[in-house]
Amino acid sequence: MKKNVLALLLLAVMVLVTACGNNTSGNGNAANAETNTEGGETAPGDKLKVVLLIPGTLGDKSFFDAANSGLQKVKDELGAETKAVEMGADKTKWEPTFNDIAAEDWDVVISGGSEITEMFNATAEANPDKKFINYDTDIDEAPENMYNMSYSTNEVSFLAGAAAALATQSDMPNANPENVIGFLGGMDIPGINAFLVGYIQGAQYVDPDVKVAVSYAGDFVNPAKGKELSLIQYNSGVDVIFNVAGATGLGIFDAAKEKTKYAIGVDSDQAMLLKDTDSDKANLIVTSAIKKIDMAILGAVKKLQDGTLEMGKRDVLGFVEDGVGIAENDIYKEVFPADLQAKVEEVKQKLISKEITVDNAMGMETSEVEAIRNAVKP
After folding, report:
1. Closest of 156, 243, 165 to residue 204, by C-alpha
2. CA distances from 340 to 23, 162, 166, 256, 290 (A)
3. Which among 340, 246, 344, 248 is positioned nearest to 293, based on CA atoms?
4. Displacement of CA 41 from its chain's centroid (Å)
5. Could you report the per-residue pLDDT of 284-328, keeping only the tens digit for each?
6. Dihedral of alpha carbons 170, 173, 178, 182, sign
7. Residue 255 burial (C-beta neighbours within 10 Å; 0-12, 13-18, 19+)
8. CA angle 71, 76, 82 (to 5 degrees)
9. Distance CA 61, CA 376 (A)
């Protein structure tokens, strides 16, 4: 009988200790974990686990590398555990990879691009306990556990077009007398043509008579094709080409170096990414039209961690939101004359104040884009 009483007493003490250890009014992680209907779950003391899925490979010194830079900032500044997964160019492998990664214990899954949006949304819907961020899509629809971003590429391309037109009619050493600038796109699709239309309109703002040579590579990972098309443009009288072709666009810089002509980068500050490995190429990149993807990813994850990120929506980041801009690095300041820099800044301020409005190819019919292209054809 005494043994039974002693056993019951010990059991009561164990229950009491366990209850105290799990008391949600204490200071442990269980007490501080909270569910937020906007940003999701936060658990101070636990590392946020964030994975980035690249629908391609790193090393493009542009779109994908910018996203990876954002992931590094998430690790360095927010203390998160991070991982980048290169899914490659084979699109049939993307959806299985999304599903496999979502089944792992990552808190936040990040990817980007309109091409992946449909399957990425489906993955999010199938995994309501996880949070997803699409860092670059033009599609509005988003599941309740997905946050989407896009950028005012038409506006930053307008500024790039103004810079190109100013360069081609200047007395810069590698500019020629012909009033023709170039554009190389990865594919003839709305997302790329949003850059094109802005670029053309920005160039026409500076000079209504400017001509624009337009080429599409049909590929985002073929630098050799990029170089081939760029050489054709440079040989035809173009003296500056705008790169909107991902890794294919790296071929523009090869051609620019070969012909001693100018180029304009995209997504990242491409001159700074090249200056340590090939300064001759870097010094020919007048500026770059930058999507601040790295900062956008950092900002979104930080808000998610704080519980302030509004899920189930898409935000468009422009000049006002500091989502886009042109590279104003040392090369730009040295290569691009000061009076032309002042004119570019004037155009930028007019874009910010909405004194200048720019058309967006995302809402255009194919025939409308074709008419714009044809109107400036050399």
Report:
1. 165
2. 66, 10, 7, 21, 19
3. 246
4. 26
5. 999 999 999 999 999 999 999 999 999 999 999 999 999 999 999
6. negative
7. buried
8. 45
9. 30
Predicted confidence (pLDDT) per residue in 41-84, tens digit: 444 557 999 999 999 999 998 999 999 999 999 999 999 999 99
d(CA 15, CA 333): 71
The token duo for 352 is 């910010």
Instruction: Look up residue 336 and give its DSSP letter.
Output: S
Q: Write down the H helix ranges in the chain.
A: 2-21, 29-32, 63-78, 94-102, 114-126, 153-168, 190-206, 223-235, 250-259, 270-274, 279-282, 293-306, 330-335, 338-352, 366-375
Token readout for 313 is 């929506």
Spatial distance between the Cα atoms of 111 and 136, rounded to a whole number of angstroms: 8
Tell me the backbone φ, ψ of residue 377, rounded to 5 degrees.
-65, 130
For tokens 């002693």, name the residue: 6
Query: What's the angle, vertex CA 73, arms to CA 69 and CA 78, rounded to 5?
Result: 155
Cα-based torsion angle of the residue sequence 186, 286, 229, 211 in order, rounded to the nearest 10 degrees: 90
**351-377 pLDDT, tens digit each:** 999 999 999 999 899 999 999 999 999
Nearest to 153 by CA among 202, 115, 214: 202
Alpha-carbon span 39 to 259, nearest angstrom = 51
* Closest alpha carbon to 245 in 85, 63, 88: 63
Strand partners of residue 265? 288
199 vs 274: CA distance, rounded Å: 23
